[in-house]
Amino acid sequence: MSRVLVVVDAVDGSAPKPTLELLTLARRIGSPVAVVFGADAGQAVAALASYGAAEVLLVPDPRVAEHLVVPKVDALEQIVAQLAERDEVAAVLLTASTEGKEIGARLALRLDSGFITDATDVDAGDPASGHAVVATQSVFAASFTVTSAVTSGVPVIAVKPNATTPEQAPVEPDVREVAIELSPTATATTITGRDLRESSGRPELTDASIVVSGGRGLGGGEHFGLIENLADLLGAAVGASRAAVDAGWYPHSNQVGQTGKTVSPQLYLAVGISGAIQHRAGMQTSKTIAAINKDPEAPIFDLADFGIVGDLHQVVPALADEIVRRRG
């Protein structure tokens, strides 16, 4: 069976949800091979095995953490070459994060292949057509959905978080460490320090299954407490429209849109957001979209699966109260 390389975004030795989604997708097209970077990489093995990683390759080389991006590209290039000597490599899957996209682009160039980014689904193609793997993408500000395939070399595909629901498939993995050689350019950029961001206790915006976003309709930054309270009740991340961010009501790191972050949660709740194309481009691939807006002609309702026309300052507290009531 062809192998599918899955690049693990290990956090404190654990495998986050987007990685488990990649393993679920990888099983559709071949035998998953998880690649974990870091000195504490071995701590993620149990989780990876639970979701079908038939092989787990550990790259504990400390130099990977000391330099930006290129050491990981070097490692993946060497691993693909080693696996290709034994069997066909069907694809390389990464999370469509900022780092994942850069690694994917560099790796595809090294492999003389193609790179597909921001995929929302991955599946086996028709080998007779020469496309063993096909990916689904939303393009042109999410106005169209297309299927894409790499026609030469090993496909490298960056997949958006929440592309699928992780499904367990426990296996006994073959676990081994991999030694790598770094290219001269790998150490050109050195990380000199790290500042840990204070945790809000909420999910990361791009990884969250539920996102609650507020916009201009809130009327002021002081009203974002309504959004935060509702998000906490739902276990959701908090997002904001560009208008809210530009007004200084919420940090830019929480902006959803073409010039902010792209999200694709199971549920996206837009509160007081008109639905301009700039915002739609960042959330249009959400599985279910609900909107609260007092303007019945707001463009967001053209996109929403569910909508409430009303004053958000009345609707949101009522919604929060109902959630609390149903939970008893």
Description:
The protein is α/β, with parallel strands linked by helices and 328 residues long. It has 2 domains: 3-187, Rossmann fold, CATH 3.40.50; 210-327, TPP-binding domain (Rossmann fold, 3-Layer(aba) Sandwich), CATH 3.40.50.1220. It contains 10 helices and 14 strands. The protein has helices spanning 17-26, 45-50, 63-66, 70-86, 98-111, 224-234, 242-246, 277-283, 300-303, 312-327; strands at residues 3-7, 31-37, 55-59, 89-95, 115-124, 133-139, 144-148, 156-159, 174-177, 210-214, 237-240, 267-271, 288-293, 306-309. Strands 7-6-5-8-4-1-2-3-9 form a 9-stranded mixed β-sheet, sandwiched between helices. A 5-stranded parallel β-sheet has the order 11-10-12-13-14. Helix 4 (70-86) packs across helix 5 (98-111) and helix 6 (224-234) runs parallel beside helix 10.
Number of contiguous helices: 10
Strand order of the largest sheet: 7-6-5-8-4-1-2-3-9
Q: Briefly, what CATH class of the largest domain?
A: Alpha Beta
Percentage of residues assigned to helices:
25-40%
- CATH H-level superfamily title of the largest domain: HUPs
| Annotated CATH architecture of the largest domain | 3-Layer(aba) Sandwich
Using the alpha-carbon principal axes, give the shape. globular
Which structural class matches the secondary elements? Answer: alpha/beta
User: What kind of sheet is the major sheet?
Assistant: 9 strands, mixed
CATH topology of the largest domain: Rossmann fold
Mean pLDDT: 91
Number of domains: 2
Rg (CA only) = 21 Å
Question: First CA to last CA: what distance?
Answer: 50 Å
Strand content: 15-25%
